[in-house]
């Protein structure tokens, strides 16, 4: 588990952009059962999260269509919440960072770490915007 002092600015990067931070399995279940579309970002301390994932997630929200709900859990910190989010992302294996779009509780789009790592934030944002166009 990472110390809170280390992850606080990484959390803030998403929460300041409107993402709701979730810390428990029940909070994740409740958030993901809401009607409409929900973007879930599994945040992480990994370099590709800072360089690509968080900026890409934020940039994806500047289009005409966007998810109804934005949530985030932090890998290596919020174990219970992350485990529940990953359960909802089955059959995809756990990876962090990762992003998933749900519509009415059903997984409709997934970005695993290998889709994020080494790709610029702009490309990640475009991938998400395409999903928003289709599902939001």
Automatic annotation (TrEMBL):
It comes from Flavobacterium arundinis. NCBIfam families: YphP_YqiW. InterPro entries: BrxB/BrxA. Belongs to the bacilliredoxin family. It comes from the Bacteria. This is BrxA/BrxB family bacilliredoxin. Gene3D superfamilies: Glutaredoxin.
């Amino acid at each position: 588990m990472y110390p809170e002092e280390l992850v606080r600015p990484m959390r803030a990067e998403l929460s300041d952009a409107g993402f709701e931070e979730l810390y428990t399995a029940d909070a994740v279940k409740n958030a993901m059962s809401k009607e409409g579309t929900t973007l879930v970002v599994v945040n992480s301390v990994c370099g590709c999260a800072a360089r690509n994932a968080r900026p890409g997630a934020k940039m994806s929200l500047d289009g005409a269509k966007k998810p109804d709900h934005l949530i985030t859990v932090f890998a290596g910190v919020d174990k219970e919440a992350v485990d529940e989010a990953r359960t909802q992302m089955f059959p995809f294996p756990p990876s962090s960072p990762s992003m998933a779009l749900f519509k009415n509780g059903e997984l409709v789009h997934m970005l695993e770490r290998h889709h994020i790592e080494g790709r610029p934030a702009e490309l990640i944002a475009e991938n998400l915007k395409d999903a928003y166009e289709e599902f939001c």
